[in-house]
Amino acid sequence: MRGLWTTARVRAAEERVMAAVPPGALMRRAAFGVAVVAAELLAGRRRVGLLVGAGNNGGDALWAGYHLRKRGVTVTAVLLEPSRAHAEGLAAFRRAGGRVVDRLGPVDLVVDGIVGLSARGPLRPDAAAHVAGLDAPVLAVDLPSGVDPDTGHVAGPAVRAHTTVTFGCLKPVHALADCGDVRLVDIGLADALPGPDLLELDPADVGAAWPVPGPDSDKYTQGVTGVAAGSSTYPGAAVLATGASLLSTSGLVRYAGPAAEAVRAHWPEAICTGSITDAGRVQAWVVGPGLGTGLGSEQVLRTVLEAGVPVCADADAITMLANNPDLWDARDPDTPLVLTPHDREYERLAGPVGEDRVAAARRAADKFGAVVLLKGHATVIASPDGRTLVNRAGNSWAATAGSGDVLSGVLGSLLAAGLDPALAAACATRVHTLAAALAADGAPIPASALLHALPDAIRTTRTP
Ligand SMILES: NC(=O)C1=CN([C@@H]2O[C@H](COP(=O)(O)OP(=O)(O)OC[C@H]3O[C@@H](n4cnc5c(N)ncnc54)[C@H](OP(=O)(O)O)[C@@H]3O)[C@@H](O)[C@H]2O)[C@@H](O)CC1
Ligand SMILES: Nc1ncnc2c1ncn2[C@@H]1O[C@H](COP(=O)(O)OP(=O)(O)O)[C@@H](O)[C@H]1O
Ligand SMILES: [K+]
After folding, report:
1. What are the mean pLDDT values of the chain's consecutive 10-residue runs (464 residues total)?
2. Deepest in the core among 41, 55, 375, 464, taking most CB within 10 A?
3. Residue 59: which domain range?
4. Which residues are placed with Cβ below 5 angstroms of ligand 3, an ion?
5. Which of 144, 165, 195 is a domain's end point?
6. For the chain, how are helix, strand and coil distributed in percent, rounded to 5?
7. Distance between CA 32 and CA 93 in Å, rounded?
8. CA dist., res. 20 & res. 73, Å (int)
């Protein structure tokens, strides 16, 4: 499990540590770390260009330039605001033989020291002009300039980093935006940091949490998943969600709804019935994918919410809850509910997502007293108890019709197994992401291919 800390808390920790170490010590450690990674990326090549902004991020770049000069690398620097460039860093850089230039010529690596934790908004025009002309890989100092450190939002021109070297701890940007390969350099902040603001699961965390049958298990003890999804118009959603539940658990999966024939044809092991009223007992429900939003579907949703077991409400279930707030009354507030909206569904439910997806997920989790899984390339999972988990897909192969149905099926089986709902949501998201990468392997895939990669994805998390 990796923690991520917002800039306000990083700054507070830095201040505490800075008071206890010699002046400039933190920057020296940070810059040395940048130089080590730069040397590794250079792999024997010898030309580095620095883009240097007005603050300490530029200072890091200049000191890294100093260390690279000491290793015999040719280093040139563009100072975006010469009068505000970090004075000691610039003096050291020049002393070591670094040259200040107006524009970077041909180089093998660019070090982005334009802006770091104080970044606000996209790159300003002069910085953007220097970045636009780059054709060498970029090593970003702390974060790619132009990307918001706390939200990962990119509102205009920004650096695209091959690698990012960050210091002391990870920040939200590193899980929410594309920072390339992220390297963490220890500058001695750990003891000064409070608990993290965000968490990101490692595959091993997922493997450790995944329910597996033991000697005393049978099909009932592992939790029975109920799937209330699909319609005569959209039977595929039911097939995908039920299949995903079946492939995520060794326990039993029941399907209830008008797509029973289609589900049975694809998944003979599912127990299928045409109506929610004779579905039998389950330990969690998945409701919504392809269900429709008519009166009959509202009744299905009401029945599920009244069942007193954890519920994953997806797709049409979310739309119904948004259109008809009376449906909330059917819910037992003490029973876990996980809402899995994409941005448009979120908007129906709780207004525009806005630039800060973490804040949006937390708002809705508070408002509804539910775990909210806000889907996207970076998925944010907020629990009403304040925990927030993030998962960055790293590839976009899952952006295909029906892949959300697969996610809700996986999540339902983890809820039925009794996992904490926020952990269940984060594990399901992570495995979904891994399955997409494994299935795609560089080429587009339909959601059914993602579905069939679930066992391999789960296996990956369980392999030490
Ligand atoms: N504190 C520590 O102990 C350590 C800190 N360390 C390092 O310090 C970094 C933080 O440094 P920092 O706070 O000096 O500011 P920084 O991010 O360099 O910004 C400078 C100025 O840029 C400007 N600017 C803003 N937005 C912009 C944009 N979009 N496009 C262009 N320019 C923009 C804005 O100037 P303005 O013109 O608005 O006054 C802002 O004030 C941190 O990320 C890490 O690298 C490490 O050495 C480890 C120890
Ligand atoms: N650009 C993207 N990169 C990675 N994953 C994505 C991207 N866009 C969507 N996804 C993932 O794909 C799934 C899509 O779900 P959803 O929008 O509900 O699709 P559908 O309703 O067609 O099943 C979600 O798990 C989401 O996180
Ligand atoms: K930077």
Report:
1. 96 92 92 98 97 98 98 98 97 98 97 96 96 95 98 97 98 98 96 96 97 93 96 95 96 97 97 95 97 97 97 98 96 95 98 98 98 98 98 95 98 98 98 98 97 98 88
2. 375
3. 2-195
4. 112, 140-141, 145
5. 195
6. 40, 15, 40
7. 13
8. 33
- Same domain for 238 and 191: no
Cβ–Cβ contacts within 10 Å for residue 113, how many?
Answer: 33
The answer to whether residues 305 and 447 belong to one domain is: yes
Q: Which of 140, 172, 195 is the last residue of a domain?
A: 195
| Residues with C-beta less than 6 Å from any ligand 2 atom | 315, 342, 375-377, 379, 393, 396, 398-399, 401-405, 407, 432
Count of domains for the chain: 2
Q: Which of 95, 85, 78, 20 minimizes the C-alpha distance to 57?
A: 85
Residues 227 and 117 in one domain: no
The first and second tokens of residue 403, run together, are 């892949």
Same domain assignment for residues 145 and 270: no
Same domain for 443 and 412: yes
Tell me the residue type at 432. Answer: H
Q: Does one domain contain both 237 and 217?
A: yes
The per-residue DSSP string of 23-67 comes to TTHHHHHHHHHHHHHHHHHHTT--EEEEEE-SSHHHHHHHHHHHH
Amino acid making up residue 211: P
Residue 243 CA to ligand 2 center (angstroms) comes to 17
- Binding-site residues, please? 56-60, 112, 116-122, 142, 145, 237, 290, 342, 375-379, 404-405
pTM for the full predicted model: 0.96
* Distance (Å) from CA 55 to ligand 1 centroid: 4
